[in-house]
Specification:
The complex is a heterodimer.
Chain A (H helix, E strand, L loop, with lengths): L16 H8 L5 H6 L1 E5 L3 H13 L2 E5 L17 E2 L11 H11 L6 H20 L25 E2 L5 H19 L2 E4 L2 E9 L2 E9 L5 E5 L2 E4 L20 H8 L4 E2 L4 E7 L17 H4 L1 E5 L16 E2 L1 H5 L9 H13 L11 E4 L1 H7 L1 H19 L8 E10 L2 E2 L12 E3 L17 H22 L11 H19 L6 H15 L6 H21 L11 H25 L23 H4 L1 E6 L8 E6 L14
Parallel strand pairs in A: 1-2, 1-9, 2-5, 9-17
Antiparallel strand pairs in A: 3-4, 6-7, 7-8, 10-16, 10-18, 11-15, 12-13, 12-14, 14-15, 18-19
Helix pairs in contact in A: 3-6, 3-13, 4-5, 5-13, 11-12, 15-16, 15-17, 16-17
Chain B lengths: L2 E7 L8 E7 L8 H14 L21 E3 L2 E2 L13 H5 L10 E6 L7 E3 L2 E2 L2 H10 L19 H11 L6 H5 L6 H12 L8 H14 L10 H5 L7 H17 L1
Parallel strand pairs in B: 1-5
Antiparallel strand pairs in B: 1-2, 3-4, 3-5, 6-7
Helix pairs in contact in B: 3-7, 4-6, 6-7, 6-9, 7-9
Classes of the chains: A alpha+beta, B alpha+beta.
Chain lengths: ~650, ~260
């Protein structure tokens, strides 16, 4: 048995590590490949690209998604773009610079070797996407165009209007659909993973519920790849799609896969403010708007004039004032906290004081309406439909919202979790973004993992051998099936009165207030006990009508909310244990005099890794120390 | 304001369905229509009744999951609007509140190729099979050339993206009197065919997609144009001309 947290980073200089690992990974022969089945859960950028690429290599693949079509996975909603170190703008970009920006953006809480590999693979992703027909923005000469994003001084973001995620996903989905039609991938939609099958100490399959018939089924194979996204929906109100959930990674955690840095959650600065009490979700406005928009609030608290009536001298362009070098392009966590701070001072704007302006007036004067519409047209339309305002006439109103989770299942350099045979890719793992992710890096990581890393490393694992057959009738499979059926029955049989949504809202409120943009020890302790009580209430007072053996969306939601409640407790536990500030994680006890997060590298330059210890025992906290050789630790500053 | 939601209830594919009226008090005209449906569902659950099944995920008009016939029109018939972007006021349209409580009727996308799964949820997997048959450029992972080697005229990239904006919601099929998916298929052919990377497979793609349309249970295109009016992403019927042209050219070449 190997030690729990061996990161298995190859030796040698940073720039040669991935080449070296690729060369030393054993290969699976063509005939053997067909005999190995790989189960891929999720069909977003990471899952679809992994499933299609593994199938192209010759493996038998099963790909499962809970949506009615793989094309609907939440990657589709990513707007702004994807980073790559092509240096097409001749502005000094390079793999090294993308690596440094990403590591620094994550406030030195990511694993150096993984981040370097991500930067290294970024260029191949663009090549791959263009070959598939992704219609990226072009210059008049026919070359690819770029724009800037937060946390970078170079222009390295490739984009397709405000629908970059959609277009990249269509590329991966079309490859997946082609492999499914060819017979290489068994594609099963409307299947939700509810448990992991572990046999002989290895991940050997998953148990799903068919969301149409309610049938509980086992899908068995030789390796399992989780590409099931993040858990920002623990906050109930987030920018994630309604169905995005943590159940797959949480069930894997309960089966022995360790969970890293659960408290690292990104709050995106440019979302539409909360309105009303029944809003189903929060809508994101791409960060790319910060390229051309200036963020401001009135200088005076309680100034209720319309934005156009407030003269220039009475406006506070607070990002430009606080961060003169990066200005409106400061990293996301920095911009989000600054927005919250000015609203806490009473300078937030209508309707309820929880919003700031994002003003395009200067860009409009400089570039004209046509150029802005070409860049952001669909965002303007979306904003106008939802608010009734035209962003070219009056400033947009924005506020931070839970958006992306840097935490996730712990993985080694090969993206394998602590459970042999179980891989986690994309947002589902913790690997590359440390304590804060830069804009336009999520798509890059999901596709690096799916197209290039996991197809190679899964092969290396399978070539290692030692995998006997696993029978559908084996005790481990029967136990996993029975456990899912029992849990599903218990949810439906619950005798209470309240819908799952009520518990979800209660959890979201606790997390937003105590484990949100700013945290402290007392608040986190209180949150943990309130979440514990909420879990007990849920077991007694939940109501799920209908039967488990039919289409039952309320049952789906109830199971997801129950898992979010357990995960929420772990998030607070992790936030309390990390007694420092880093990136997104601001402990109010640890701030610099000007309110920036104060890291404690002596005590916390590590990944916090939580291991499940049973239903009645607290999870165990392990650490993976982080060493910084190529990029020495420095204080992050966007000033 | 008070409204009545009149909703198609159907337990599963084989069960008979019927319209059921649900009064809903104190809603705001500016609320998203699906928020009103969420609210209704919470009340149904609290009362121990089966909530209304409907698909929706991103709630910002990009994933294509939502799709309801609202007052007789797919997605409610507002220009460039998906069901999840539709407000109560938008669903009611111009002929809104008179003295009586306005009624909003919600029905599934009903067409031969999309069997009803439950209430407002239908099975649109026939669209995935069209993509699998030919809606792709074969570009094996790892085989791609440097991205800037092939210049793509800006206008071609923009026009390709216009067609690639399709979200696969199926409103075009639901709106078509023949149940044709010509707009959906044409959008994919136009997206890929307008790019140089799509040229090598253009003929094969057209033939495969046309065959998949026939096998998928879709009707033929009668050039009614209802699809264009229903499309929430503004896909134009020109793409159907592209479909027909590509298919004809491919047939002539294969003789």
């Amino acid at each position: 048995m190997r030690p729990a947290l061996e990161s298995r980073v190859p030796l040698g200089p940073l720039a040669g590590k991935w080449t070296r690992r690729r060369a030393e990974l054993p290969l699976v022969g063509p005939v053997q490949k067909r005999r190995h089945r790989v189960i891929v859960v999720g069909s977003g950028l990471a899952g679809a690209s992994a499933a299609a690429s593994l199938s192209e290599l010759g493996y038998a693949v099963t790909c499962l998604c809970f949506q009615d079509s793989p094309r609907r996975a939440h990657s589709v909603a990513a707007q702004g773009g994807i980073n790559a170190a092509k240096n097409y703008q001749n502005d000094g970009d390079s793999v090294d610079r993308l690596f440094h920006d990403t590591l620094k953006g994550g406030d030195f809480r990511a694993r150096e070797a993984n981040v370097y590999r991500l930067a290294e693979l970024s260029n191949a992703i663009i090549d791959q996407a263009v070959a598939q027909g992704v219609p990226f923005a072009r210059e008049y000469g026919g070359a690819l165009g770029n724009r800037s994003f937060g946390g970078a001084l170079v222009s390295r973001t490739f984009y397709a209007r405000g629908q970059t995620g959609q277009q990249l996903l269509l590329g991966a989905y079309q490859a997946l659909a082609r492999e499914a039609a060819r017979g290489g991938v068994t594609l099963l939609a409307r299947r939700e993973m509810l448990d992991l099958v572990v046999a002989g100490g290895r991940a050997r399959g998953v148990v799903t519920r068919d969301l149409v018939s309610g049938a509980v089924e086992a899908h068995l194979g030789d390796a399992v790849v989780l590409a099931t996204g993040g858990y920002a929906n623990a906050y109930c109100l987030s920018t994630n799609a309604r169905g995005s959930n943590a159940t797959a990674i949480w069930r894997a955690f309960r089966r022995g896969a360790a969970f890293a840095n659960p408290c690292f959650v990104q709050f995106h600065p440019t979302c539409l403010p909360v309105s009303g009490s029944h809003g189903a979700k929060l809508t994101l406005m791409s960060e790319s708007l910060r390229n051309d928009g200036r963020v401001w609030v009135p200088r005076r608290a309680g100034d209720e004039r319309r934005p156009e009536d407030i003269p220039e001298g009475e406006r506070d362009y607070f990002l430009e004032r606080l961060y003169p070098r990066y200005g409106n392009l400061a990293a996301r966590d920095v911009a989000s906290r600054a927005a919250k701070a000015v609203c806490d001072e009473g300078r937030g704007v209508a309707p309820n004081g929880r919003a700031v302006y994002l003003d395009l007036a200067d860009a409009l004067a400089r570039l004209g309406a046509a150029a802005l519409r070409e860049r952001y047209g669909n965002l303007f339309e979306l904003y106008e439909r939802l608010t009734g305002d035209d962003p070219l006439k009056t400033p947009l109103r924005i506020y931070p919202a839970a958006h992306y989770t840097m935490g996730g299942l712990w993985v080694d350099y090969d993206l394998m979790t602590t459970l042999p045979g179980l891989f986690a890719i994309g947002e589902a793992n913790f690997s590359d973004h440390g304590a804060n992710r830069l804009g336009a890096s999520a798509l890059m990581q999901a596709l690096a993992d799916g197209y290039f890393i996991v197809p190679a490393t899964v092969g290396g694992y399978l070539a290692g051998g030692g995998l006997g057959p696993v029978a559908a009738s084996s005790a481990e499979v029967r136990e996993a099936l029975a456990s899912v059926e029992a849990r599903t029955r218990a949810l439906v049989a619950s005798p209470g009165r309240r819908p799952a949504a009520a518990f979800h809202r209660a959890l979201g409120e606790i997390l937003w207030n105590q484990c949100g943009l700013a945290r402290d020890a007392a608040g986190l302790a209180a949150a943990r006990s309130r979440i514990g009580a909420l879990g007990a209430e849920l077991r007694e007072d939940l109501r799920v009508p209908g039967s488990p053996s039919s289409f039952n969306q309320e049952l789906e939601r109830a199971g997801r909310v129950a898992d979010f409640v357990e995960l929420g407790e772990l998030m607070c536990r992790d936030a309390a244990a990390r007694d420092e500030s880093a990136g997104c994680h601001l402990r109010t006890e640890h701030q610099t005099p000007d309110g920036e997060p104060a890291r404690d590298d002596a005590r916390f330059a590590h990944v916090a890794v939580w291991r499940y210890a049973g239903p009645d025992r607290p999870p165990e906290r392990l650490i993976e120390p982080l060493a910084f050789e190529a990029a020495p630790l420095e204080t992050r500053s966007y000033r | 304001m008070n409204i009545v939601l009149e909703i198609w209830r159907q337990e599963d594919a084989r069960a008979p369905g019927r319209l059921v009226r649900y009064p809903l008090e104190d809603v705001e005209p500016a609320w998203p229509l699906l928020d009103a449906l969420d609210l209704l569902n919470e009340r149904l659950v609290a009362a121990g009744e089966r909530p209304v099944a409907f698909d929706s995920d991103c709630r910002e008009g990009i994933c294509g999951a939502c799709g309801v016939v609202v007052n007789g029109r797919p997605h409610g018939g507002r220009p460039r609007t998906t069901t999840c972007e539709l407000t109560i006021a938008g669903a009611l349209g111009e002929d809104a509140p008179g003295a009586a409580t306005p009624v909003i009727t919600l029905e599934p996308f009903r067409t031969g190729a999309f069997p009803v799964v439950c209430d407002l949820v239908v099975d649109r997997s026939a669209l995935d099979r069209i993509i699998g048959a030919g809606g792709f450029i074969t570009a094996r992972t790892g085989s791609a050339a440097e991205a800037n080697v092939v210049p793509v005229p800006k206008a071609d990239a923009e026009r390709a993206l216009d067609a690639a904006a399709c979200i696969g919601c199926g409103a075009c099929v639901a709106a078509c009197p023949n149940g044709s998916a010509a707009l959906f298929a044409g959008a994919k052919l136009a997206h890929l065919g307008r790019l140089p990377q799509g040229a090598p497979e253009r003929s094969r793609r057209a033939l495969a997609v046309v065959e998949a349309l026939d096998q998928g249970g879709f009707g033929g295109c009668g050039l009614h144009g209802e699809c264009e009016r229903a499309c929430p992403k503004g896909i134009r019927v020109d793409v159907i001309a592209a479909l027909n042209r590509d298919a004809l050219r491919a047939r002539l070449r294969s003789r």
